[in-house]
Design goal:
single chain; about 260 residues; alpha+beta; Thrombin, subunit H; six-stranded antiparallel beta barrel; 4 helices; about 10% helix
């Protein structure tokens, strides 16, 4: 299950670094994907601790990363950092940007039948120096949402997790099909294309007919990798993220009406 990513990823890193042989059937990652070309999807980042990468995330502002709530609550020896780059084998990468603080959605609930709200954020001590093009706009517009979030539509998923070849820690991408949508989650993947352990918290993007991209998904959980999983919808928690973090995300007017 991808909601157990943090413990599984850290264990696998420790086992590998101690010279133990990986399991014969290691869980794959952005399953059925390909390596991201250098410089592409710079806003897709890795969340790291002392032992290396354990989750993925999305930069939506130079000082703000959105990731999964279960990544926020995970034990991270050595503190929490954010890594920007293409990654490294085994996930043994050191984040360059230290977390100042982090929080999980107050609506996060693993027992909820309507969706877990498995979303949180990290505020960084210092801003990340990337061009404005690195920060893909968050999907909030109702018409754009109708266009992108529907069964049969294509979603572009990115992450640093385990792969079908047993590797982990490199940034990979894949196009996967949306199979279902509700108020705060979207089901994506199947047929051998999926996210996996280490991809938790990572993004799902959609391309509008006008060629512009939007980011809307946060990897939450799933069954066996390759069978599809669930992504939390950023838009369902974005007003809380903006208010609680204190960072202005320049959301379209009317997105977060005053209470």
């Amino acid at each position: 299950m991808r909601h157990a990513i943090s413990t599984l990823a850290l264990f696998s890193l420790v086992a590998t670094s101690c010279g133990q042989t990986p399991q014969e059937k290691s869980q794959p990652s952005i399953y059925g994907g390909k390596k991201v070309e250098s410089g592409q999807w710079p806003g897709a980042v890795a969340i790291t601790g002392l032992l290396g990468m354990y989750c993925s995330g999305t930069l939506v502002n130079p000082r703000l990363v959105i990731t999964a709530a279960h990544c926020i609550s995970a034990f991270s020896p050595g503190g929490t950092y954010v890594y920007v780059g293409e990654g490294w084998v085994l996930g043994l990468i050191k984040g360059q940007y230290k977390a100042l603080r982090k929080a999980a959605s107050p609506k996060y609930d693993q027992q909820s039948q309507g969706g877990w709200n498995d979303i949180g954020y990290i505020v960084l001590e210092k801003p990340i120096d990337l061009p404005a093009s690195a920060f893909v706009p968050i999907l909030t517009d109702p018409e754009e949402t109708k266009e992108l979030l529907a069964p049969g539509k294509t979603s572009h998923i990115v992450g640093f997790g385990n792969r079908e070849d047993g590797g982990i820690g490199r940034k990979y991408e894949a196009d996967a099909t949306i199979t279902d949508v509700n108020a705060n989650e979207v089901a994506i993947g199947g047929g051998g294309v999926d996210s996996c352990q280490g991809d938790s918290g990572g993004p799902a993007y959609g391309k509008l007919a006008n060629g512009q991209w939007r980011v809307y998904g946060v990897v939450s959980r799933g069954g066996d990798c390759g069978t599809g999983g669930l992504w939390g919808l950023m838009g369902a928690n974005i007003c809380w993220i903006q208010k609680d973090s204190g960072i202005n995300l320049n959301l379209p007017q009317g997105t977060c009406p005053e209470a």
